[in-house]
Amino acid sequence: MLVGLLDVVPTAGAAPQGPPSTGFAIEQVSLHRRVGAYVIDVQAGRDEGVTLEVARGPYLDFYGASEGGLEGRTIAARFGQLGSLRLAFDGPVRHAGRCGHRSEGGGVFKGEFEFHGEGGYLDFSFASMQGDIEALSTCPGVRPRRAGAVEPQEPSATLAAATAGPLPRESLAAVGTHTVHGRFQGTVVGSVTEYEHGMFVGRLTTVKVGRSQFRWNLARGTATVRPGGPFIGRAVFHRHPHGGAPRLTGDLRVPTLGGPQLTLTGKRFKAKLTKELPYDE
Predict the structure, then answer these.
(1) What are the sequence ranges of the domains in the chain?
(2) How confident is the model over 187-206, as a mean pLDDT?
(3) Which end of the chain offers a freer environment for a tag, N or C, measured as fewer CB atoms within 10 Å?
(4) 0.70 exceeded by pTM
């Protein structure tokens, strides 16, 4: 009986057990700065590498760093022969202080960042950039909460097409959905992914479209994409009536920033039309 009491009643010299102390880990970083007509964005996450995005109007190029990553407060990366960065968050990190909770903040990252765009279309050198961070409050033995997926409430569709085989790989994506208020939201993206300068380089051209510019019928397996400028022409998707490969016909073309004009239809493309679903972690 005495042994049982000693199992549940603390002895006189035992220290009281309070809540575990919290630390933090910076999980995601997003840096941004404008250079003339260009918008520069850097994205980094723990165990996710570093990407650089250069955008001007509907055009966007992205560069996947050949080496580097997010370590503590510091982002370090090399973009082949085009440039490099090493920037550290300067200031206090404010976090939720509750185990497993995420919080957002921002501030200035200081260090060095230089980049020389292909063909000389862009050339810059920074000593600082504004940034946003997502911090995870950590406690020993406590796992972070996971956000649940949200089921869409309105019909939606995605037309996705890409060339097969080795790089460069061209692709077309059209996404349309109806909001809970009955409004239509749509986006069309034309892109090419290459391997240059010892790293992956992506060039995207993106526009928002209305309901008349992306039409589909999931039951029939048909869709038409006519985005308007800077895209030229249209793409038409037809599902094969007897289970063969779908067809993507038309004359849809689009220019890219620092790269070639893309032709986004034809037999080179493997295409599919699906009902868009939320990402399920």
Answers:
(1) 23-138, 156-274
(2) 94
(3) N
(4) no
